[in-house]
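Write out the 3D structure for:
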Amino acid sequence: MRPSLLLALAPLLALAAPAEPKFRLQEIDKVSIGYGLAIADVDGDGKPDILLADQHTVQWYQNPTWKKHVIAENLTKLDHVCIAAQVVDGKCEVAVGAGWNPADTVNSGAVFYLKAPADPTQKWAAIELPHEPTVHRMQWVQVDAQRWDLVVQPLHGRGNKNTVGEGAKMIAYEKPADPTQPWKLHPVNDAGHVTHNLQPTRWNAGPAQQILSGSKEGIWFNTFEAGAWTKTPLTNVPTGELRDGKLANGRRFLATVEPFHGTTSAIYTQDAGGKWVRQQLLDGFKEGHAVAVADFLGTGSDQYAVGWRGADPGIRLLTPLDADGKTWRTSTLTTKEVAVEDFKAADLDGDGKPDLIVAGRQTKNLVILWNAR
């Protein structure tokens, strides 16, 4: 084939749609609510395990048998609500948020660091840390080559009524060598309201991560420089869930659920001037509660999954059909099998294909969607 003909066919080849996704569902446990998931190698065997903050228990499921190990129970009278796990220097660091009551913007909330015993299948020691009310989400975030901070995001600002009042204070907790000693607290962002989720990412050169966070005001880009956090607004549409990914052209996109517990999903890409431009891709669902980004299909471009809970739950996979992300395909992964409270993308079996781990609220189940492409 002549080079000129190859060039002529290139646009057509670029538009060739990838095969539809294929996932196999495996239910590994029944749960109470399934508030928050994390993926990390808990036992140091080189395989990613599943961690879950359920209503009254914190547990991990051992890869590949998925045997459950409860490591904490009833940390507060009110529900556990979130979990963060990260392997640092070969050790799995785990933190949990609890005391969940979004209506109490004064006295609710709790943050615990869980100190692992020699045998990680046994109960872990819970070390209580200072906290803001309505603690809701948390992530470990790398701030330099040697340091990972626990970043905690409340849903509301202290004393808020009807989402009005002080901004919700996202705080980075700097872990001391002895975790029972006081942790240094660093303010990250206190400008947002109804701040439902956050994502560590790495857009800048160097080891430090940045944080994308969603709020009633839109999406924020939070950076740690010269020992302090700064915040930059990227969008102005109320955002509940968000993750970032890359298109085939190498450019970033932001994938969302809008607004808080929302009914629509959109992506944002940057125009020539750097402005983030919104493109709505999906609507008509209720209680949108999770977004995950990965190259599930092996196309060299990320796709994203969006999930919702309630009486008519579902998970859809959105796939870009061109290098610039102008055209997307929607594929159904699940319907009533699981009402999504949280999910995470991870390659659990080491086959190079990202799987989807899903906790279901109304369906009260924990499932793995094995990538069978």
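Confidence is low (pLDDT under 50) at residues 1-13.
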